[in-house]
Amino acid sequence: MKEQLPSSFGVVGLGRIGGGLARQALGKGIAVVGHDTSEPPDELVDAGLEYIDDVSLFAERLDRPRVVFLYVPAGAVVDEVCEELAPVLDDGDVIVDGGNSYWGDSLRRYERLKEEHGVEFVDCGTSGGVRGAEQGACFMAGGTRQAFEVIEPVLKALSVDGGYVHCGGPAAGHFVKLVHNGIEFGMLQAIGEGMQLLERYRDELPIAEVLRTWTNGSVIRSWLVELMEEQYRAQGGTGDIPPFVEDTGEVNWLVDDAMHMEVPVPVIAQSVMQLLASRDSDQTWARAVALMRHGFGEHPFGADEGVEHHRKSSRLGPFPGA
Asked: Is residue 177 annotated as part of the catalytic site, yes or no?
């Protein structure tokens, strides 16, 4: 029996992730209504995206219960979009924040939207990078069971097999995604340090081939090692990569939360310290981490003013308590 696909959903923010998910959905025959502050790429419109220049139009263009995903920068922008959307939606409709918002902020958004507008809010961490958005992502959702069941068909259609989970109540999804990002930092740092050891060996090693072998049957095989090999070959090694590793600051929140929760996270905390150290050093491990981050998320090489601004503005509220 052919699986029933969702009929439609909305997306606010048609950048790398939001646009990639829209493109994947359109390719599967799902109607997508999109909004952004700038005109959408022609390829999305050609693929069937229905672009609207006013979020109020979601009310008439989407089937009920309406589902609208947000892929906008974390911080005040999320609140602004929610305040624009909520009055034009009805009870049972769901706003889904798919970005990397702080889970404490997500909890406050859920409570405010429910109390003031009767609209459901789901915090949904999204992993897999740009490729995942276009080919099959991984979703970690937090919210009421009722709201999750409304968005589940969309998550199932856009994820890899087994690639979505209802983590629990409001804020659980973004908390789980935050922990995920902390683990990612630790793994990136370990691989980067291993690369530095390989490059400092007494004789020249066939590093790209070593990486290829590690992706085939070794204990440390992973997508990150695959990306390391891919980017190492594509960039001709690490020599021309700036060692300055930029980041958007989410794992800083996790280290702070861990201190409030009295949970020791020495590997994750040290990976953040090493990332900061990369900004005043010339180390192979930093170049290697930059290569992998560029591979999965197209993160910039070197310093970036936009990313720095995001890091300083995306978390709004304090730790809300364990």
From this structure: yes
The verdict on residue 319 lying in a domain is no
Looking at the structure, do residues 81 and 164 belong to the same domain, yes or no? yes
Q: Tell whether 216 and 293 lie within a shared domain.
A: yes
Q: How does pLDDT run along the chain (322 residues), one tens digit per residue? A: 456 788 999 999 999 999 999 999 999 999 999 999 999 999 999 999 999 999 999 999 999 999 999 999 999 999 999 999 999 999 999 999 999 999 999 999 999 999 999 999 999 999 999 999 999 999 999 999 999 999 999 999 999 999 999 999 999 999 999 999 999 999 999 999 999 999 999 999 999 999 999 999 999 999 999 999 999 999 999 999 988 888 989 999 999 999 999 999 999 999 999 988 888 777 788 889 889 989 988 888 888 888 888 888 888 988 887 5
Q: Which domain holds residue 119?
A: 8-170
Q: 136: buried, middle or exposed (CB in 10 Å: 19+, 13-18, 0-12)? A: middle
Q: Is 156 a catalytic residue?
A: no
The two three-digit tokens of residue 319, written as one number: 């730790």
Please indicate, yes or no, whether residues 17 and 105 belong to a single structural domain of this protein. Answer: yes
Whether 2 maps to a domain, the answer reads no
E-state strands within the chain: 8-12, 31-35, 50-51, 67-70, 94-97, 120-127, 137-142, 159-168
The whole-model pTM stands at 0.86
Question: Active site residue: 184, 226, 229, 250, which one?
Answer: 184
Catalytic residue among 39, 43, 152, 177: 177
**Dist CA 47 CA 24 (whole Å):** 10
